[in-house]
Each structure stands twice: as structure tokens, then as C-alpha cells.
Amino acid sequence: MKYRCKICGFVFDEEQENQKFIELPNYTCKMCSAPARLFEIVENDYLIDAETVVPNAVKINEDNIAIRRIVEDCINCGQCKLTCTKKEGLDFGEDSSLCVNCGQCITTCPTKCLKPINDITRLEEAKQNKKICIAYISPATRVTFGEIFNLPYGTFTLSKLVGFLKHNMGFDYVLDTTFGADLTIMEEASELIERLKENKNLPMFTSCCPAWVKYAESFYPDLVPHISSCKSPIGMMGSIVKNYFTEINHLDKDNIFTVAITPCTAKKYEITLEGNQDTNAVITLYEIAEYIKKNHLKYEDIKEEEMDTILGEGSGAGVIFGNTGGVMEAALRTTYHFLTNKTLQNLEFTSIRGLDGVREAIVKVDDKIIRVAIVDGMSNAKRLLKEIEGNPDKYQFIEVMNCVGGCIGGGGQPLINMDDALKIKNERIKGLYKRDQEKNIRSSYENPDIIKLYNDYLEKPLSPKAKKLLHTKH
Ligand code: SF4
Ligand code: SF4
Ligand code: SF4
Fold it and tell me: Is residue 72 lining ligand 2, measured as CB closer than 6 Å?
């Protein structure tokens, strides 16, 4: 007989262990220390399907790569289904393989029985196997880590998060995904300019949100050629860490375990896709919050630390990737420079900021006009796509993010009171814009590490090497 831990998925196999599970009432899970009562009998190593027990709940497949449900804690309230289908507009009917792994259902479950799959166990395993563990931190986590310790919403706590990852979680290196965001902008802005010149596959859609990309692939396959071929910032970090960082630091590429620290459950799905597997695991802040609570860690006990150098710093543009409109604003700063060789006088595109579901702007670049739109939430995306069906030339560039507010509202963020969600998301966004303003370097093309990477290694945006390492097929 086999028993599976409902918390982390570890399987106790009586045959392998040569012991009956029932004879071990005080057993605790080898991976996450969950007690024996949280184990359930499984067949074929899969969780028993929850559908029959909770008919009102959204369907979570037993092989869902990002989300799990603790069935016995579910009260069948239907809140998750309401969020998924009505609020988010992600109605996948009976085919639960179309779940985009966004985790928005987690954010509204009153009993907290929906959770991200716990990948801290995989980090523990890698450390036991003497792997060199490298973390990279997503932009939106630096203004939400403090919430775990009840700090005011939007507080910037990057050095504490770095210290936590190094000293409490045992990472050997901690790098910054804002660097990957800058790299994404270099490639994406160049791709946009190429498409504008050739008047091909416009409007171009952003590709950094895997939930949006999966949604488009499933429901709007004709749009796929319009989606940027750029990997997401995490995808680019994975490639550059495994290929460039290991080379310059003389590390054995096969002995590296890379972990993206994210606000996003859908990234757990993204790293399973072909071309994105240089990131070995994704750990969300939700999982980190559970770890911190389980280990009774206090904020004052966590040391402050600096990021490691090279790939350890992004521009202000990389930081605002974490909120809706940020990718577009970051892209416009660099696109303007690439097209004119000049620096923008006013770097802040305030008309595309905020939390209105659909925002648009007309950007004048010398004698050219670029029409852009920003949309967050799939309900809003559907509205916009309907609108452009009859007017495909209306925009040249469209940013789409699955979660309302962008990644600051991701399904892997620490839980918040959803009655105050808009207010809280606004505070998180303010925290990122404030950080952008404080940075000396606010555009991706000015980041000295980015310049060095292209000079020493990639040659130029869209070079054959850059295309091989930083782009993908949808
Ligand atoms: S993860 Fe997203 S798409 Fe999947 S069930 Fe939850 S809300 Fe729906
Ligand atoms: S919201 Fe949570 S408790 Fe309610 S039906 Fe969904 S999974 Fe069950
Ligand atoms: S908006 Fe951000 S957090 Fe939400 S699914 Fe997309 S990438 Fe993940």
C-alpha cells in the first residue's frame, strides 16, 4: 500500500520502506514534517480525485502542476468556481486540463484548502544532494515579503528577502529577476521594432504571463503568431544562469539547482514547457509564508543581505515589471531609445498606470505613432480581443496579464483580505513605482550588466545566440 502526504505530495511506499504505515502513528513526513493523519491512501501515486466530494468547487486535476486542494478542509462553498469563471472569466467548462494555473482561486478560498504545490521540498532534496542552489527573485515579491510579518502593504523589503533566502533557506547565490526583466525588454523592444518595420504579426502581445499564453493557445490559437517569442524574465534568467553565470563563475552546470522566487503559481507550469526547463523549481511567497510561520521566524531575526553581483541588479524598468502596465512602460522607454537614439525626457507614462481593466495610450516617437493597450484580468482581455476582432489595426502592442493588478496580485502572493484587495494592490504598486523613482538607472538599455552581457556574450538583441537562449515557440 502507498500513502501520500496531502501537504507536499511525498509518497510513503510500504513495500520500499518495509514497514506498515498504520504501525507508525507518530510518523512525520520526511519532506515537510506533516503528521501521519495528513497522509491518505493512494493508488498509482496520484491524489484521489476531489470532484465527487466537492461538486461546487472548481475542478483541480490530480496532475495539476501548480495547485492542490486539501479535500477534507473544503466546505463546498463554490467561491473558487465563482472566482475562476465569473470574476476571472476563465471558464474552462468540463475540461480541467485548461486551467491556466493562475492560483486566483487560492486567493478567495475561505478555508485555505487550495494551495500552491509545495516545492520547498524539492529545494531540500537538492541541498541534500549537494547541489549549488541559486535563487532569483521576481520583481513583485520585494513589496509583499513584508506582509508575512504584518508590515504595511507596499513596504520594500528586498534585503531581508535576500537574507532570508541565503541564511534561512540555504541558497548559495541570490540573483534578481529584474535583470531578466531588463533582458526581456531588450529583446521584446527589438522584436516590436522588427515587426513594425515588416508590418507583420501586429498587434504584438506580451509573453511574460504564462497563464495568458496558455489561455491564448487554448482559446485563441489564431493569436499565437502575434505573441512575442521572448521567454519570460524567469525563462531568460534560467538560460543565462545555466549558460553564462556558470561559465564566468566556473561552476559545474550539471550541479546547479535553480529556483525562481515568485508571486506566481503559473510559473510552476511554465518551467515544464520545452525551452524553459533551465529553471528547476518555482517557490511562491505563499509557500515561503507557510515556511516562516511553521518555523516561527520573526522579522527582526532575519538578516539583511545584498544580492550577488552580475545578474544581481535590474533597472527601475525591471522593477515595475511586477505591476500591470509596467511591462509596457518599461518596453516604451527602451523602444523609444532604440528608434531615436535619444533618451526620453519624461520616463513616466502615467496614462497607462492604474487599475482600470483596459488602458490605452498613443505614443509619439519622432514622426511615428505607436498605439498601445494594457489589459489585466482575462475578462478584460476577452473584451479587448472582441473589440479588436473588427479593428485589428487599432493597436500595435498589447500587454496582457492574467491577474488583476499584474503580478503584485498573483495567486502565489501572501493571502490578503479580498474585501480590501484593490486598496492593497494599489499600495503594492505604489511600492514598486517608488523604487523605480529611487533608482539611478531606470531604463533596461542603460543597465551596465545588460550592456556587458551583450558585449561579452550575446552580441546584440535578436542575435542567433540571443534567439537560441532567450526566445521560445508557443
Ligand atoms: S488556477 Fe486559475 S484557472 Fe485554474 S482553477 Fe484556479 S482560478 Fe481557475
Ligand atoms: S473555495 Fe475552497 S472551500 Fe470553497 S469550494 Fe472552493 S476549495 Fe472548497
Ligand atoms: S499576472 Fe503575473 S502572477 Fe499572474 S499569472 Fe501572470 S505572470 Fe503569474
Answer: no
Residue ranges of the chain that CATH labels 3.40.950.10: 183-229+313-414+436-470
Q: What is the pLDDT of residue 249?
A: 94
Distance from Cα 211 to the centre of ligand 3, integer Å: 7
Residue nearest ligand 3's atom 2 by CA: 407
Residue written as grid cell 523609444: 336
Contact 351, 363 (CB under 8 A): no
What's the CATH fold of domain 183-229+313-414+436-470? Fe-only Hydrogenase (Larger Subunit); Chain L, domain 3 (3.40.950)
Which ligand is closest in space to the CA of residue 83? 1
Considering every ligand atom shown, identify the ligand nearest to the alpha carbon of residue 109 and give its number: 2
**CATH of region 120-178+235-301, choose from 3.40.50.300, 3.20.20.70, 1.10.10.10, 3.40.50.1780:** 3.40.50.1780
The number of the ligand nearest the C-alpha atom of 209 reads 3
CATH class of segment(s) 1-48: mainly beta
Query: Which distant-in-sequence residues (6+ apart) come within 8 Å of 36 by Cβ?
Result: 21, 24, 25, 26, 27, 28
The finding on whether 74 has its CB within 6 A of some atom of ligand 2 is yes
Contact 378, 89 (CB under 8 A): yes
Where, residue-wise, is CATH 2.20.28.10 in the chain? 1-48
- Which residues does a 6 A CB cutoff place in the pocket of ligand 3? 102, 209, 211, 263-264, 266, 401-403, 406-407, 410
Report the top-level CATH class of 64-116: alpha beta
Q: Which atom of ligand 3 is nearest to the CA of 101?
A: 5
Task: Please name the residue ranges forming H helices in 352-470.
Answer: 378-389, 421-438, 448-453, 464-470
| CA of 407, nearest ligand number | 3
Sequence-distant contacts of 252-257: CB under 8 A, at least 24 apart: 252/132, 255/130, 255/131, 255/132, 256/131, 256/132, 256/134, 257/123, 257/126, 257/131, 257/132, 257/133, 257/134, 257/281
- Which residue CA neighbors atom 7 of ligand 3 most closely? 209
- Strand 173-176 relative to strand 132-137: parallel, antiparallel, unpaired? parallel
- Ligand 1 centre and the CA of 96: distance in Å? 9
* pLDDT tens-digit readout, 84-109: 998 888 877 778 889 999 999 999 99
* β-pairing verdict for 281-284 and 256-262: parallel
> How far is the centre of ligand 2, averaged over its atoms, from the C-alpha of 68 (Å)?
11
**For residue range 392-422, what is the model confidence (pLDDT) as tens digits?**
899 999 999 999 999 999 999 999 998 899 9
Q: Is the pTM of this model over 0.85?
A: yes
**Per-residue model confidence (pLDDT) at position 46:** 40
